[in-house]
Amino acid sequence: MTPRTIVITGASDGIGAAAARTLAKAGDTVVVVGRSAEKTSSLAREIGAGYFLADFADLAQVRRLAAELSEKYPRIDVLANNAGGIMGKRTLTVDGNEATFQINHLAPFLLTSLLMDTLIASNAKVINTSSAANGFGKLDLFDLTSEQGYSTNRAYGTGKLANILFTTELHRRFSDQGISTAAFHPGVVRTNFAAESTSPMRHAYKTILNRFMLTPDQGADTLLWLINGTAGTDWISGLYYAKRALAKANKQAYDAELARALWDKSEELVKASV
């Protein structure tokens, strides 16, 4: 079989790195994307992968990344939108968006949109890393910069909710053109996640509690299952998964009109950043 080309963002650490190692070992052509030059290049050397650098807090870097990927890889079989994170106090990016929302949603939305021609031509899978934290998110289309009642955890939950809504609408718009897509919760994984945030959750990752968390390899299991499985047979496109099974999400995640409106608003926001 011809090796698949699999692009994984947020691949310099955690479940992204674990998945990249497994897929490269199986013979796939893995392309890793990260923010840290040192960690991303180190992983790429380790597994013999191509790599690219991009900070999702700057949409100009996302545009550059998409152009570089399009030029080098005429075929992309899987795009794993795995980059994201929980932030600290409310800050705006250089593009004028609330940082948590941009890094977790707008940047992968833009990257996917810019690669869409390649993805359609490749009958690609687009896999989006969400989180059970979507449950305490609340999406307000009239306050996407979180000016009202900002909290670190709510902003993160809203970003993860947006991942699911993006997945739903991506399926609706492009499934008939060969795109299959899913969002998933990896579990609570023992990584550097939340290290730079002010969320109380950051403490759990530095204490004895981290002994009860999943390893990155365990956290990557559902991601690998979605990548290696077949939509329509092993899983259903457009839905949200955890532990290789359908999972319940925030009630807003099932609002088809909200999904459409978020897509339209996201298009406006990324265009405004040009």
Q: How would the global form be characterised?
A: globular
Q: What is the oligomeric state here?
A: single chain
Strands side by side in the biggest sheet: 3-2-1-4-5-6-7-8
Mean pLDDT: 93
State the distance separating the first and last CA atoms: 40 Å
List low-pLDDT spans. Answer: 202-206
Strand composition percent: 5-15%
Question: What's the total number of strands?
Answer: 8
Biggest sheet overview? 8 strands, mixed
Number of helices: 10
Helix content: 40-55%
SSE series: EHEHEHEHHEHEHHHEEH
What Rg is obtained from the alpha carbons, in whole angstroms? 17 Å
Which structural class fits the helix and strand makeup? Answer: alpha/beta
Task: Give a structural overview.
42% of the residues lie in helices and 13% in strands. The protein has 274 residues and is of the alpha/beta class. It has an 8-stranded mixed sheet with strand order 3-2-1-4-5-6-7-8, sandwiched between helices. Strand 7 and strand 8 form a beta hairpin. Helix 3 runs parallel beside helix 4.
Write a brief structural summary.
The chain is of the alpha/beta class. The protein has 10 helices and 8 strands.
